[in-house]
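Figure 3 (text version): structure tokens given as input.
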């Protein structure tokens, strides 16, 4: 796993230029982006999805899998994750697809 900090000079992720932190996993040639946080809200899911799109566009590489690892994810945030194609796991040990 690689933790990358980049500067989003176009403001794609946060609406204004700012640092963007992304966890990257490359497994069997697949690009996987991960968000690890104690709790994740709906807005956290949307922000993570914008980070994924930012990274894929900036590096011209499609992201095959989006993973959120969090022990506290309310149902409303899970619904957003499902809509955005983000896999949600309660614990890092539960991640088997990546």
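Below: residues designed for each position.
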């Amino acid at each position: 796993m690689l933790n990358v900090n980049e500067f989003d000079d176009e403001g794609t992720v946060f609406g204004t230029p700012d640092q963007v932190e992304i966890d990257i996993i490359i497994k069997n040639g697949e690009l996987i982006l991960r968000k690890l946080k104690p709790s994740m809200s709906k807005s956290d899911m949307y922000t993570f999805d914008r980070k994924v799109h930012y990274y894929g566009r900036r590096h011209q590489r499609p992201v095959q899998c989006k993973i959120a690892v969090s022990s506290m994810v309310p149902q409303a945030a899970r619904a957003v994750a499902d809509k955005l194609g983000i896999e949600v796991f309660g614990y890092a040990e539960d991640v088997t697809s990546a």
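The beta strands are 2-8, 18-27, 30-36, 65-69, 86-89.
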